[in-house]
Amino acid sequence: MSSHIKMADQVEDILPTVAEYYTGRNVFITGGTGFIGKVLIEKLIRSCPKIGKLFILIRPKRSQDIHQRMEDMLNGPIFDKIRKDQPKFKDRFVPINGDMCVEGLGISPSDRDMLETETQIVFHSAATVRFDEPLRVAVQMNVLGVRKMVQLCKNFKKLEVFVHVSTAYANCDRPYIEEVVYPTPVDPQKLIDSLEWMDDEMVELITQQLIGGKPNTYTYTKQLAEDLLIKEGAGLPLAIVRPSIVGAAWKEPIPGWIDNYNGPSGLYIAVGKGILRSMKCDYQGVADIVPVDIPVNMLITVAWYTALAKPSNILICHSTTGSVNPFTWGEMEDVVMNFWKKVPLDACFRRPRITLTNNGFLHEFYVMVSHLVPAYLADMGYSLLGKKPRMVKIYNKLHRSMNTLTYFTVQSWEWTYSNLDMLVSQMSPEDRKTFYFDPRPLHWPTYMENYCLGTKKFLLNEDLSGIPAARAHLKKLRNIRYTFNTILAIVLWRTLVARSQIARNLWFFIMGLVMKFVKYFRITSTIR
After folding, report:
1. With 70 as the cut, is the pLDDT of residue 501 above it?
2. CB atoms within 10 A of CB 476
3. Closest CA to 469 of 347, 342, 349, 350
4. Least packed by Cβ within 10 Å: which of 257, 268, 332, 512?
5. Burial of 264 by CB count in 10 Å (0-12 exposed, 13-18 middle, 19+ buried)?
6. What region does 96 belong to: left with phi over 0, alpha with psi -120 to 50, or beta?
7. Residue 515 phi, psi (nearest 5)
8. 3-state secondary structure (DSSP) of residue 413
9. Which helix (H) or strand (E) holds 245?
10. How far apart are CA 114 and CA 445, in angstroms?
């Protein structure tokens, strides 16, 4: 398959604007209550104000039905501007009761009839994003979910485009990744058939052998999903968008907005709290994080182009930053550390500090000294004070999260992006501003500062008025550390070194110099 999109017919007239295309068209969205889904919904309503209905597939929870979940989502802070500008925007939403793991998606016959007769545009973003998900569950959500969506959409009478949200790491066993669907190591149907007769213990035993060069079941099943999509979805107007590590918003809906601890978000908080002190990472490696509004704008634009231009090949677009605007983990560490010193988090465990190393032995040593030992000491203190120990549990959870990310922090990839440039060339100047998805203008230091601030505001719900108190707490922690280090140095010197006459003479000589410096500065300050 060529990485360049060939037009089925020559498009002679200028394409209508993105907002014009969405006018009056109805959209069906899966994964709408997820991170990308929320931003996608907000952007569609705000930037395409004449859009038709939005059908949102929602799975009910024990404590909430689909209408309550929809209401909670639409009352969130990212919809504040829309509530002001479009007071009746909720009238456009139609929640659809469904579940990706249920036969036929669990959609009722009446809802199915409505979707089949009224839907023109489909965005499929529902998936399990847990890297350590059991293979059976990952296949059920990420692979069979695609099959169910294809089977459903084949009956849509007005379907103009089906956009599938994949991941840039679906082919992460390749260092250079093109805008094509690569052959899978195993036929998806054969794996599905095997999982039907294997028990969970057997599946767990062969999982590592099955995924081969892939780091986890997520990337493995996302590649299988792409293969199944193009085979079983043949004849449908398909398109695929592959985001890399999706992070907080760059510009919209709110700079720095984030609603989950996935990816780097939890790590930034752990660093800011002084919990995370060592990370296995290539200091010069590229941190391919993409702000959530970039892939969302690409999704909207890819659907617009696919529906109107009708390319003969499936349009596959990479939403990544490393190939066009690289930012290394080392550069990120500098920005994040400097920010947390200026705008600290509340109630830090220790002063923020982190060491990035690609050396496994050094990392394990730092984990022992800087993570586990302080954790056990802290829990002993909590027990003595009659409080519930918690630091060892926190560190165990942190280490599990770090282990799942190590594969992505110790190496870099290169993605092609010719389809990105092609899409930009097809857009009007105004649409390029409204539906921006080219990451080249992104200023990383500013973005990272907004990202860290977003974790403080939107995840931890910390008030910015508490920053002076947080700074005072950091100073207190600094003084405690200096005092502890001084006492420790004296104890070690007196017990291990000061037994010899030479060592004692050196001790008195050093202390004499210290006293002279103290006396000198006292005199200087008195004169001033």
Report:
1. no
2. 12
3. 347
4. 512
5. buried
6. beta
7. -65, -40
8. coil
9. strand 245-247
10. 47
Q: Residue type at 304?
A: W
Angstrom distance (rounded) from CA 351 to CA 479: 11
Per-position b or e across 374-394, b if 16+ CB within 10 A of its CB: bbeebbeeeeeeeeeeebeeb
Which string of DSSP letters, residue by residue, matches 315-364? Answer: EEEEE-STTTS--BHHHHHHHHHHHHHHSPPTT-SS----EEES-HHHHH
Residue 286, beta-bridge partner list: 328
Q: What mean pLDDT is predicted for residues 419-442?
A: 95
User: Which residues, other chains included, contact 494 with Cβ-Cβ below 8 Å and sequence gap of 6+?
Assistant: none
Cα–Cα distances in Å, from 385 out to 378, 389, 390, 460, 468? 11, 10, 13, 26, 28
Cis upstream peptide for 253 (omega within 30°): yes
Q: pLDDT tens, 333-389?
A: 999 999 999 999 998 988 899 999 998 888 998 999 899 988 998 889 889 888 898
- CATH for 18-253+289-325+412-440, options being 2.40.30.10, 3.40.50.300, 3.40.50.720, 3.40.190.10: 3.40.50.720
3-state secondary structure of 439: coil
The residue extents of the domains of the chain are 18-253+289-325+412-440, 466-527
Tens of pLDDT, residue by residue over 262-320, are 888 999 999 999 999 999 999 999 999 999 999 999 999 999 999 999 998 999 999 99
Beta partners for 56?
Answer: 29, 95
Mean pLDDT value of segment 252-268 = 92
Q: How far apart are the first and last CA of the chain?
A: 78
Three-class HEC string of 38-97: HHHHHHHHHHCCCECCEEEEECCCCCCCHHHHHHHHHCCHHHHHHHHHCCCHHHHEEEEE
In this structure, what are the phi and psi dihedrals at residue 226, rounded to the nearest 5 degrees?
A: -65, -45
Per-residue CA distances from 17 to 12, 354, 447, 528 (Å): 15, 47, 29, 70
Amino acid type, 63: S
Amino acid at 266: G
Distances (CA, A) of 415 to 100, 141, 190, 401: 30, 26, 29, 25
